[in-house]
Amino acid sequence: MFRAVHFLLTLVLAGAAAPARAADRPNLVILLADDMGYGDPSCYGHPLIQTPNLDRLAGEGLRLTSFVTGCWCVPSRNQLITGRYLPRVKFGGHTGADGKGGLPDSEKTLPEALKEAGYATHMVGKWHLGYKEKRFLPVHQGFDTWFGLPYSNDYMKPWVQTDEPLGLYRGEEMVEHPFDQDTLTLRYTAEAESIIDKSDPDKPFFLYLAYAMPHLPIHVSKEGRGHSKAGLYGDVIEELDGSVGRVLAALDKKGIADNTLVFFTSDNGPWTDLPPRMLQAGIHHWHTGSAGPLRGAKATTYEGGARVPAIVRWPGKVAAGGVSPELVGMPDIYRTFIAAGGGSPPELPLDGQDLTPFLSGKTQESPRKDYFYFREGLEAVREGRWKLRTTTGEPELYDMVTDPFERFNRAAEMPDRVAGLRKRMESMAKEVGVKVAGG
Q1: Which of 171, 187, 177, 183 is nearest to 123 (CA)?
Q2: What is the DSSP string of 355-420?
């Protein structure tokens, strides 16, 4: 929630300058999977899981192969909604069950910026950026409507020892507890379809659909069960892919697909290194996804934790069928969507870049030149082709061009490069108020 006085002033100014017709600006759609690995979609190489709708989206747009984000839920969603690395944002506590933290008033959220620019703003699905106080909920952070969960679907016994009920919210009120998680993907999809169908042709909209799946415990509808050759996890991903297809079909039916920017990605890599608390009540290691050839998993700053599938479709702007290895980060989506919608970014230090020249083909290079990986402090930096990790105390230097799998540590042969990247890390750590991991 941006500061109230400033928000009202900029709303008036933006409204006066906003284009009169929705056709002047694109509708904006973000589809965010939860814990989907880099290797899960068929267009990213999975040998058994079939994702024809994601494949179609990639065929009609641009598939990114070096898209990085926070290595677990909250940092990623924070980067998307604020355009800033997590240490910059003072939540004042955690945001899961019983957590008292949330987005502070000083942050200008993506939906707030788009609302200022004249957009209708809607959210469906998982929030995880604060709920204990109503001011932290999506409908007080720039969204006109919200239907979904306040945090991850595992925040209940036996996986998390809490007495806080896990319930579905509509607006600022919990409207359903308990509920059937098997139907959640289908219910979210139907909600998104309804929003698109009822959208005002004279007012552009922003839709953020944040799926619960495939975060553990995984669930799939009765209709979606038993179809995938990759077992239960495959069923979950294929049902999610079917949801993507239904959202795209809704845009087609409404006649607005050609004027809609669609971005699909995941918040982080697969949760393959499960804590003991999750290995109970029917959950198994094979209920998680694949990072493909990448090293690491969710909650690590190796690429398997931070690099995820990412597809952008924007007819008339993004050339169809492209594949790019250029470095792109989740904070860039914040800047890009604000630019595409004609909004104004805040006067705060931002960590995202406007990708519109890159996406439109005006330049073949991404404007992002580096990315900082935070976990226990600042654990790694990538600058160009080189990535330095300091977590173990011994530097790990990897060439992301010849070795994106992080198999060969080149630190010993390149001490000057290690020193230079370490200096970059120390500067950023000081700027955001954390320490460089590993001492």
Answers
A1: 171
A2: -HHHHTTS-SS-S--EEEEEESEEEEEEETTEEEE-TTSS-EEEETTT-TT-----GGG-HHHHHH
With CA atoms as reference, report the closest residue to 123 among 35, 198, 30.
30
Kindly give the residue spans of alpha helices, DSSP state H, lying in 117-210.
Answer: 184-197
- Residue 304 near residue 271, CB atoms below 8 Å: no
Q: Are 36 and 270 in contact (CB under 8 A)?
A: yes
Between vectors from CA 347 to CA 377 and to CA 355, what angle results, nearest 5°?
Answer: 75
102 touches 131 (CB < 8 A) = yes
Q: What is the DSSP letter of 130?
A: B
CB-CB contact of 405 with 358 (8 Å): no
Per-domain boundaries in the chain? 4-364, 371-432
Place of tokens 């690395």: 85
This prediction's pTM:
0.94
Contact (CB, 8 A) for 264 and 54: yes
Single-letter residue type at 258: D
Q: Please give the share of the chain, as a percent, with pLDDT higher than 70.
A: 95
What is d(CA 295, CA 282) in angstroms, rounded to the nearest whole number? 27
Catalytic (active-site) positions: 73, 128
Helix (H, G, I), strand (E, B) or coil at 208: strand
Residue 9 main-chain phi, psi, to 5 deg: -65, -50
Strands 260-266 and 310-313: antiparallel
> In CATH, what is the architecture of 4-364?
3-Layer(aba) Sandwich (3.40)
Confidence of residue 393 (pLDDT cuts 50, 70, 90): confident
The CATH number given to 371-432 is 3.30.1120.10
The confidence band for 392, taking pLDDT boundaries of 50, 70 and 90, is confident
Q: Is the pLDDT of residue 12 over 80?
A: no
pLDDT of 15 reads 42
